[in-house]
Structure formats: C-alpha cells, structure tokens
Specification:
Distance between the termini of chain B: 22 Å
Number of helices of chain B: 12
Number of strands of chain B: 17
Distance between the termini of chain A: 41 Å
Mean pLDDT of chain B: 70
CATH architecture of the largest domain in chain A: Up-down Bundle
Strand content of chain A: 5-15%
Number of helices of chain A: 14
Number of domains of chain A: 3
CATH topology of the largest domain in chain A: Multidrug efflux transporter AcrB transmembrane fold
Order of helices and strands of chain A: HHEHEHEEHEHHEHHHHHHH
Largest interface: A-B, 91 and 89 residues
CATH class of the largest domain in chain A: Mainly Alpha
Strand order of the largest sheet of chain A: 3-4-2-5
Number of domains of chain B: 3
Number of strands of chain A: 6
Oligomer: heterodimer
Structural class of chain A: alpha+beta
Strand content of chain B: 15-25%
Helix content of chain B: 40-55%
Structural class of chain B: alpha+beta
Low-confidence stretches of chain A: 347-362
Mean pLDDT of chain A: 78
Chain lengths: 374, 541
C-alpha cells in the first residue's frame, strides 16, 4: 500500500485499524507513562517557580547606565538562573529603582549579588536591598482551584452521563486524568519550572482532552443507535467509530498543534521568548496525548466496561477486521457486513452484483431507530 | 429559508464589522497584564503589633479583596515584612490606591440614636453631641419617612449625599439556634423575629453597666452616616470584625435574603460579641436602641436590631429587606472586612513589565504564523471550502477582540501572556467545528446524497456534536470562573469567551455560509471537498 492510497482511505474515512484489538498494548504504554510520572512526582516532585515558592528580591536604584540588561548580567555572573527571573523597573516619587526577583538563593549568593549590584550601579551596598519574597500564588488560590476542579469534574460527569451515558463519563474522566498526568510528568521528569502559565497550560490540556473525547463519543453513540437492531460487539462499534472520526481527529490535532508548534519554533526559538518555550512544550504534549487518549484510552475503556453488559457480553469476542470492518461502515448488521466482505473477497461478477444492490440499499438508508434520548 | 440564512450571514458580518470598526475607531486597545505591560505597585507597611501568621492571613484577605474587584490578574507578594500589591494595567496611581488603600477597618458599635441629619446643624465635628445634629427619633418607634430637605450638612462625609425618604433599618439579628430565646418582647421595629420561639426564658440578659451618663453620649461616641442615608450616633467600638470567621455568606430563605456568619470561638470572638449583644438586648444605657451598627471605614453599612442576648449556636444571621446584591455586599464585608494587621501605604510606584515587548511580539507573530499554517492545511485538505473557515475565523477574531477590548476598558480585564497563548490554542478548537462539519459532509456526499441534502443533514449532525463538546468546555470555563481567583480565572474567562464565540459563529456564520454555498449555482458542477456529488452512478434520490 503506498502512502497516497493510505491518505485516500484516510480522507474517505475508510481506514480499518483495529484499535480495540490493540487496547492491551495501549493500556500498558499509557500505564507505564503514568507510573513514570507518579514515580517522578514522588521522588523529585515538581520544580516550582518563584510564584509558588517565593524567593529573593534585590532592589537597587536604576540609572541610565544601570538597567535591566546590567542586572541580568550581574545575576548570570553569580550563577543565578535568569530564565524565569522577574526584572522590573519601578518608578515613583523617589525616582526609579530596579527590582529583580528570582527563586530562593543561599545567603552567600544573596550577599554576593547585593555587592555586585551595588558596584555595578555605583552606589553603596546599603542602597541595594535584599528581601525574601513570598509566593504570589497563595495557598488559597490552589485550594480554590482544586475545589473548582472537583466541582467541574462532577458537573462534567453528570453532563456526559445525562447526554450520553455514565460509562462514557467515567471513560472520559479517566482519559483526561491520563492526559493531564502525562503532561505533568513531562514537567516532573525534565525538571521544567512550573509557573502560573504552566497551570494554565494544564487546564487547557484538560479542556482539550475532554472536548476531543466528547467528539469521539458522540460518534460512538451515533453508531450504537445505528447498530441498535443487530447483535454487534462493542469492539466493532468503537472500531468503526474511531476509524470514522480518525480523519477529523488528525485534522483537529494538526490544526491545534500548528499554532502551538509555531509558538515553540517561531516564538521561542527564533525570536527568543524563552518564557513561551516550556508552556508550548506542555501544550503540545497535552494535545498529542489528548488525541491519542480519545482513541486508544477512552473508547477501548468504554468498550471494556460496556462488554460487561449482557447485550454485548455474548458477542464480546467478535471483532471484525479489514474488509469486514470496512463493510460495517455502511451496513448496519453484522451479517450483511460479512456478506459484503465475503463478496468483495471473491471479487467476482457475483460480488459486483451484490455490491450494487448494496449501494442501492445505501441510498435509502434504513429509517433510524427511535433514539432513546437526544 | 434562504432569505433567513442570508440575513443571518449578513447580520453577523455587519455586527462583527461594526464592533471592530468601533473598537479601532475609538482607538481602544486591550490592556495587558503585569507580565506584558506592567502596572501600579503599592507597598503596604504593617503597623503596630503583628506576627507572621497574622500577616499571612492579612495577605490572603487583601488578595481576596483585590481579586473580587475585577478580572485582571493582580500579583500580591510579601517582601520581607511588607506586602506588595501589583495591579496590572493601572496607570493612575490614585486609582490603585482606591483599590488597595481602603484599610477595611470593620467595627461593631452600639447605636445610641438614629435619625436623619439636621441641615441646620453647625459643624461637621463628629464629637459634638448628637442632639444638635440629629432629629431625635424615639427609641422604639420607627422614624418613618423622616425626610429632610436635600441640602446636606457641612462636613466631610455627608457632602453630596441626597437625603431621600429614609427607610428604617429593618435588619434584625437573630440567632439561628434560638433555643435559648427569651421572653421576647417583640420589637416594635419592623423586624423579623427569631424563627423558633421556645419561651423558656432561660437566659436573663445580664446588664453590663458601664456607668455612662444616660443623657450625654459617652466618650468615644460618634455620629456616622449610614449607607441608607440615616445618621447614627454610635457608641465606642465594642468589637471589630475579628469576632467573625471569614466565612460570611448570603443565603435566601423563601424570598428574603439574609447574611449568615460564624462567630469565632472563645474570648476573641463569641465572648466579645455576646457581651455586646447582651448589653443591646437589655437596652442598656450604652445601647438604648438595641441596634448594633456594622461600620466599615466610618460608614454604617447596616444596623440590625439584636434579637438574642446570648448567641449560643455560634452563628449570627442578619435578616431584613435585603436585595440579593445588598446581602452579598454585606457578606463580602463581613468576610474580608477585618484585616488582622493594620497597614499603611508606604509607596506607590509604577512597574515595568516582567517579560518585555519581545515576548508579546513573539507571541503575536507566532500566533499569526500558526494561523497561516492552519489555513494552508485547510486549503490543502478541503480546497476552496477553506475560505469559509478563513472568513469564519476572521469574523470570530473581530468579535472576540472587540469584546476583550471593551471589557478591559470597563472591567479592568488584562491580557497576560498565558491569556494570549490560550487564545492561540483556541484557534484549534474553533477550527475543529469546521472539521467536524466538513467530515460529516464528506460522509454524506460519499453515501450518494445531493450536495444540498448533504449540507443540511451534516450540519444537523455536526451541530449536535459541536454543542455537546462546547458545553463541556463552557462548563469548565464557568466553574473555574466562579470558583477561582488570579490567573486561573483569567484563563477561564478567555476559554469561556472562545467557546461562546465558537457556538455563535457555527450557528450564525458557518451554517448559512455552507447551506447557501450548497444551494448556489456556483456549486452545481463542482466537486466539494474533492467529492463530486455522484451523478454517474444511477442513483435516484
């Protein structure tokens, strides 16, 4: 199969990947990532930035020859990380001062920087103040955010349970937890500094993941309705649904990821706005896992749960593959699909006839069953 | 049908064009956050006695107060012993002071007399005896409709306030746990009596004699102006807001709004409070009206009548003729009013941005590059239908930019770097609505329907999907918005705005645009999305 025919099939929504059959490796891979994350969190924890942990602030009088660039120089000369340093010029009635805030430093460094700043600015050491600064992200913000998230999870579960079904709610929340956990893991493993922007990135991932899963589940629900009359396994339903939305999922991921990649490449690498870099990496990873989890975690998980139901338990092992699955896209019963698939395999004139009748049937699709709920 | 579609399409384009025109025409720009634009910085120096724990609480209270003002993301840090409050986008230092500078001094004082201000009163000296300043109401009867010519006396606090017909303070304080209640001589004021009146008369109110003269107001009394327009002669400060826990809330019972707040236990809270209420309940000389004035920064916010001598349940409920807004305001005051440390403003400065113009430029340029890449992708994949995406996104950006600009002018919304990044991410979600629609359209066309039919059917399906997915996003935004503070709140705002814009654009722009396109002559002999409506297979539709 060359790449173009593959693309064509993708474009027409005719791919026949057995996602359900690959659920075990997928679960193992996801589980492994999550274990790594948890281990990294337990051992190293997150590298919290000044906004969460507080740090040191120096303040010195500013002058024409002593500005932001000079302060940065001094900090770097003393081996202080400046990527996330906050350097600000304050102007008030007493003239201009310059303030530099960085993460916590040992006493020796504090004094060394104080000395160096005074020297560079040409003032007395007493004119350069050093003070410990507290976190700007107070405990109450974290508490409120966590409370809000819990309320949100509850509401979203209720909404999905009402709109779709509670097993979908469970699977969607699990997939979302998976995505957020893995993104947090990237920060824990690579020791990126966590800033308020990072928290926002995690929340974005959370929203994106749920959004993506809901779109896939909407298709699954539609297919459940379509196959309501036939005894067809849940594995088949989720496979068909995932394949049908694959083009959409890839497209959406691409069009969401392109701006983020641009933020990463153009913004942070070419234009040197390093504060964007880690943010963009977190978002990118979150989006990719968000798409992955919708298809490889959420839907198979849902199918596994659904297979415990009597209706699906009996046919749980029947999972159509290849041409048979392709036929399921257009036929609403297993037998018709098998026939069509068999016919295609025979590739005789007979099958051609069968196919024609099949496509004739298609133009008048069976009246949809009454939906349980809209 | 066709006309309605066209009207919707033209309508949204006109609205977007008008909004963006007005925004650019007036030269307004969205204000930017601390990281991108800087703002005002206020340094608060604690005064008197304090310890680290009290300072911590004070910072949390200041944060809550500043946060409750607007959507901007303020930054509040402790630097050494001082508290630094950075307000984004505030250029006017006086305005910054107005926001932070209120000391939030909450006092509870017994009311000696109420009345409306006598315009003939001489001085504005607050220490003058009340009899010259207030028309005396009796203690028990309501000073109903005591209207006074609208002149306003001299003195700093009552200058421009028009004195309209003064409604009586109707609030009452009741213990919600009213088992120890009392042979209540039902107050003659328009009050709401305690809900459970078990008359066992267990608690005989203990009179606290202070030895204050009955005719002259005791030392430390003041005349204060009430929020309701009445003047109050209040006794010395009997308690501060510290008697309450920081958990006041407004609740509704039936149709009446009330405020419930918990008392702090022990000598710091309950004991002080009960000493005051006991005095007032017995209509002691130091509190003849049985009212307790809740005073914030020298203004009487409310003066409820005490309905209990001793509050055993530890819970205080204030009922009365509140509107919802009034109840919420009072709850907020009770909750944040008492800062355990006194602060003085030691410095007001403007601060420069922490990130600098480079970051903003980088974010905007990379956003535009990203947008261009998305269009290229759409164009490659969906051919000329991508134009619908292009115009849809343009309309959406115009609307959102106008709304953000408007809100940053009126509500102090400030766009931080993470906000901008959030908007960049929302591009993907906006484009997704089109993708869901087009993919369905492809399916419908593939199964042999006519273009016109397919467009209608696929929109219906896509609309359900978009609505379900956007509802989840909007739920996230709404919950985060209501329940959080700071930068999380800022994020929630932009997420919610982007989601609403998405729904609006899908319905008012994409739907008419695609349906009209599907009906147009232009499309008759063209393949849409690379799929020609199947005419070669003899299909009867």
């Amino acid at each position: 199969m060359n790449i173009f025919s593959g693309f064509g099939r993708l474009y027409r929504g005719e791919t026949t990947v057995d996602y359900y059959g690959k659920r075990k490796p997928a679960f193992i891979i996801s589980g492994a990532f999550m274990v790594v994350t948890v281990v990294a969190l337990v051992i190293g924890g997150l590298n919290l930035g000044i906004d969460f942990k507080g740090g040191v602030a120096w303040e010195a009088p500013a002058s024409a020859t002593f500005g932001e660039a000079q302060v940065r120089e001094v900090l770097e000369a003393n081996d202080v990380e400046t990527a996330n340093a906050k350097i600000q010029v304050l102007s008030g009635t007493e003239g201009q001062r310059i303030r530099a805030q960085v993460g916590d430093q040992p006493d020796a460094v504090r004094q060394a920087v104080q000395q160096a700043l005074a020297e560079k600015a040409g003032v007395d050491v007493q004119d350069v103040s050093v003070a410990r600064v507290s976190s700007s992200w107070g405990r109450s913000i974290t508490e409120k955010a966590i409370r809000a998230l819990l309320v949100f999870f509850l509401l979203v579960s209720l909404y999905i349970a009402w709109r779709f079904e509670w097993k979908m709610a469970l699977a969607a929340i699990a997939a979302m937890a998976h995505d957020v956990l893995i993104s947090v893991g990237i920060y824990a493993v690579l020791r990126f500094e966590v800033t308020p922007a990072t928290v926002v990135a995690f929340l974005t991932i959370l929203g994106y993941s749920l959004y993506d899963t809901v779109v896939v589940f909407d298709k699954v629900r539609e297919n459940i309705d379509r196959f309501a009359s036939s005894r067809i396994s849940m594995g088949n339903i989720v496979n068909v649904s995932s394949n049908q939305v694959l083009a959409r999922s890839l497209n959406t991921t691409l069009s969401s990821a392109l701006p983020v990649v641009s933020l990463l490449v153009v913004g942070s690498i070419i234009m040197g706005a390093t504060s964007l870099q880690e943010f963009a990496i977190a978002l990118l990873v979150g989006m990719l896992t968000g798409t992955y989890s919708s298809i490889f975690v959420a839907t198979p998980l849902y199918a596994v749960m659904k297979n415990r139901e009597q209706k699906y338990a009996a046919v749980a092992d029947q999972v159509a593959k290849g041409a048979e699955m392709a036929a399921l896209f257009e036929h609403s019963t297993t037998r018709a699909a098998q026939k069509a698939a068999a016919g295609e395999a025979a590739a005789t004139r007979e099958s051609q006839v069968l196919k024609n009748t099949a496509s004739n049937v298609l133009t008048h699709p069976p009246r949809p069953r009454k939906r349980r709920r809209r | 049908m066709k006309r309605r579609l066209a009207a919707s399409l033209i309508g949204i384009i006109v609205v977007a064009a008008a909004a963006i025109g007005a925004t650019i025409g007036t030269g307004n720009r969205p204000s930017l956050g601390l990281d991108l634009q800087g703002g005002a910085s206020i340094t608060l120096q604690p005064e008197g006695e304090y310890d680290a724990a009290a300072l911590e609480v004070a910072v949390e209270i200041i944060r809550a107060r500043v946060d409750s003002i607007g959507v901007a993301e303020p930054e509040i840090i402790r630097q050494g012993d001082t508290v630094v409050v950075n307000l984004p986008g505030v250029k006017d230092q006086q305005r910054a002071l107005d926001i932070v500078g209120r000391t939030g001094d909450l006092q509870l004082r017994p009311v000696l007399q109420t009345g409306s201000i006598d315009p003939t009163a001489g001085t504005g000296d607050t220490e003058t005896p009340a009899s010259t300043e207030t028309t005396l109401p009796s203690e028990t009867t309501v000073p109903s409709e005591t209207t006074v010519p609208d002149e306003g006396g001299p003195g700093e606090s009552r200058g421009a306030r028009p004195m309209t017909d003064t409604t009586v303070p109707t609030e009452t304080t009741v213990a919600s746990d009213a088992t120890i209640a009392t042979n209540t001589t039902a107050p003659t004021e328009t009050t709401i009596a305690p809900d459970a009146t078990t008359e066992d008369g267990a608690a005989t109110p203990e009179a606290v004699t202070t030895g204050a003269p009955t005719n002259e107001p005791p030392a430390g009394s003041e005349v204060l102006l009430g929020k309701d327009g009445l003047a109050y002669l209040v006794g010395p400060v009997a308690a501060t807001g510290l008697v309450f826990e920081n958990n006041a809330s407004a609740t509704i019972q039936g149709s009446a709004w009330s405020v419930v707040v918990q008392l702090r236990g022990g000598a710091e809270g309950e004991d002080i409070w009960n000493a005051l209420t006991t005095r007032c309940y017995s209509r002691d000389a130091t509190c003849p009206t049985a009212q307790v004035a809740i005073v914030l920064d020298g203004e009487v916010l409310s003066a409820p009548v005490v309905q209990e001598a001793v509050f055993t349940g530890g819970e205080v409920q204030i009922t009365g003729d509140f509107t919802e807004a009034e109840a919420r305001d009072l709850a907020k005051v009770l909750e944040f009013g008492a800062v355990p440390v006194k602060f003085a403003v030691s410095q007001v400065q403007t601060v420069s941005p922490t990130l600098g113009g480079d970051s903003l430029r980088a974010a905007i340029i990379s956003g535009l590059v990203g947008l261009a890449l998305v269009f290229v992708l759409m164009l490659l994949y969906y051919r000329f239908v991508a134009l619908v995406v292009f115009f849809g996104i343009t309309v959406s950006i115009a609307l959102q930019f106008s709304i953000i600009t408007y809100l940053s002018k009126t509500n102090g919304l400030a766009l931080s770097l993470s906000g901008i990044a959030g908007i960049i991410v929302s591009i993907g979600i906006a484009v997704d609505s089109y993708i869901v629609f087009f993919e369905r359209l492809k399916d419908e066309l593939n199964s042999g329907r006519t273009l016109r039919n397919s467009a209608q059917r696929s929109f219906e399906g896509a609309w359900r999907t978009v609505l379900a997915a956007d509802t989840v996003s909007f739920l996230a935004a709404a919950v985060l918005w209501w329940l959080t503070v700071g930068s999380v709140r800022g994020f929630a705002f932009f997420l919610g705005l982007a989601t609403l814009a998405d729904v609006a654009i899908v319905w008012f722009f994409t739907r008419p645009a695609m349906l009209l396109l599907a009906r147009s002559k232009f499309m008759e002999n063209r393949a849409l999305l690379g799929i020609r409506a199947k005419s070669e297979t003899a299909v009867t539709s």
